[in-house]
Amino acid sequence: MQIIQRSSSSGIATDSAGSASALDQAGVANAGAARDAAPLNGAPAPAPLRRGLSNWDQPLQNDISTAQQAVDFLEQSAAQLRALKSDLSAKLAARQMRDGQVEQQVRQFSDSWRSRREATGGSLDGRLNFTKGEPASQRFAVRGMNLANLRNGARETLAVSLGGGTQGLRSVHLSPGLSDNEIVGRFDQALAPAGVRVSMGQNGELVFSTEEANFPAVRDAFAVQGSGIRFPTGQLNRLKVEEEAPLVMPENWGTADIEQMRETLHQVMQALSHVEAALSKVRQELATAQARAETSMPEIETAGVEDIADKFATIAKEPGYQSLQALTSALVGINRERVVSLLTLR
Questions:
Q1: What pTM did the predictor assign?
Q2: Whole-angstrom Cα distance, residue 102 to residue 123?
Q3: What is the mean pLDDT of residues 86-91?
Q4: For labelling, which of 11, 40, 146, 343 has a CA lying 20 to 30 Å from the CA of 331?
């Protein structure tokens, strides 16, 4: 959370002599200097706060904010899944056919789940891995891009297209005798500037990853041109991209008959297990970030703060434009994210 320093020494608009002046005299101008307010005319400048919230570690604020967003989303998802599990179990036990309620619950959860990236600030990927400090990524494989195919053959330069015209065209040089790690490293080095990273899969395949927001463009444009050794020469050849499946896929849940409802219940229980496991991990991340915040929380001079709060509350009850002007000036820069970041420290 940051307190924005205003040009006025009081931090409150002073172009009118009404509530703003009253609030100044209440002690805002001298908060952190003394409990007894000095006269405004000819008074020395108020002593600055020793360390203010504006000096708080911005990355730490972001860690807390994104973790809290992920926790909120996962808690809501878990609650929806528990309700869906309960209703499906009850209907299957009574062998009741659908009545519209379960279908509506499935639609609601599916709509909510599609908002995962936006609701979590891009911190939770399709495998429910929480990432802080960088956007969630999408992993994928490309047909033909495996080490068994790439390590054999004569020297060849591959042109890999990732879309975006010539800027999305990258070159990978392959030659006999390269180790598997060297091959993977050359692909990673070539594609990294285009936002695609490469690693080695468990079965000898290349595993590619890019930001979720970039994946559709990469998927639709991935093409390779060789010299006829590992890949055909001539024009760029589009290759099939196979994305890593997400853990939760409500678009596949059906409720048309008893058998579909039974299969959906099984998938709902699996989804709930995945969501609860992810929730536990993100809560731990949030607790770690909060602990860091508590140990590094700046020392804020609090002399007179209680008196100021009481005076502020009294002025806030006064009707009129001048009182409103004082309040809005004092609240400049305050938003939901900053308030949540502080409340999580309680």
A1: 0.66
A2: 30
A3: 92
A4: 40
